[in-house]
Amino acid sequence: MTVVDVKKNADQKMHKSIETLKADLAKVRTGRAHTGILDHIQVDYYGTPTQITQVANVTLIDARTIGVQPWEKKMVAVVEKAIRESDLGLNPSTQGDLIRVPTPPLTEERRKEIVKLVKGEGEDAKVAIRNIRRDANEALKKLLKDKACSEDDERRAQEDVQKLTDKFVAEVDKLITDKEKELLTV
Description:
GO molecular function: ribosomal large subunit binding
Oligomer: single chain
Number of strands: 6
Number of domains: 2
Distance between the termini: 51 Å
Structural class: alpha+beta
Largest sheet: 4 strands, antiparallel
Number of helices: 5
Strand content: 15-25%
Keywords: Coiled coil, Cytoplasm, Protein biosynthesis
Radius of gyration: 22 Å
GO biological process, one term: cytoplasmic translational termination
CATH class of the largest domain: Mainly Alpha
Low-confidence stretches: none
Family: Belongs to the RRF family.
CATH superfamily of the largest domain: Ribosome-recycling factor
InterPro entries: Ribosome_recyc_fac, Ribosome_recyc_fac_dom, RRF_sf
């Protein structure tokens, strides 16, 4: 492994941390309907746990209502039950073969609770990024100890890893701030 490999590996892992945070934030309900909040719900499709998006068409009917239209008639009740039993607190209603999922407006208290949860997610992402930095720095020290790089190269690489860390931590802060604004906007 070379200094370049260590930096590239750290960059890739930090990108994955950001992508994970974005996916987690997309699941957070903001009072407005969006199809992404149903992505993690699994339904029993012929004995196999399957994502809702794999068995139904998920669309927005209006700003506060999601429409879920299963491709098979017999899946309507299964999909409705999966949505009702999810941790989202949604109450779907069926009209023929269309399941309407209204998203109730959030109370001020609930918004503040969700902001705390979002900040916690951000802190977790920052910790993950800092752990990646620590691992990269340890790998650089090992390269120096094994005489695979000079002290100057190791020091410069550590500075580059720190710059990467700062960049990704700033991106986490921006994502959290944007989500907080979105949550607190009524």
